[in-house]
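User: Can you predict the 3D structure for this chain?
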Amino acid sequence: MGGKAYFHEGPLPPIPDAVHQLRIEKREGGEGVRVWVDDLPGLLSLVEMDVVEVNPWGATVDDVERPDMLVFDLDPGEGVEWPIVLETALHLRDVLGGVDLDSWPKTTGGKGLHVVLSTIPEMTWATARDYARTIAEHFAATNANRYTSKSSRGARSGRVFID
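Assistant: Here is the predicted structure, written as structure tokens:
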């Protein structure tokens, strides 16, 4: 059974005082709003807004133009069991550690895992995206029968998608 992903689009509902807002200019044009909380009343306010899942940003509120972490999303395709996802996360951690990049796992709330690592302060979103894509493609190429960096459903079947 698969659920459907839902991303809020359009105007936000009324925002309680305990939830902070940051207005950003979107890459594709227009303005967007990002929200954050810094205490329990803020978290409870998100619940009152019917927020189901909270995902951390890849940057701090003080410097949204500079990512402070990279997240590799390990998403199992059809037929891939949990032990393979776990083995993939450990293998990716070892590969990153082999070039002196410390990483750590994070559950996704779904069926996969995240492998997270810190960035360097000079990294921009564009360089972070290119860097992560290069790592994902290189890692997927180490075992094309088990991993893929291609997002098409056909490429994912029986493999772990590294996003």
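Residues 89 and 162 are 10 Å apart (CA to CA). Confidence is low (pLDDT under 50) at residues 1-5.
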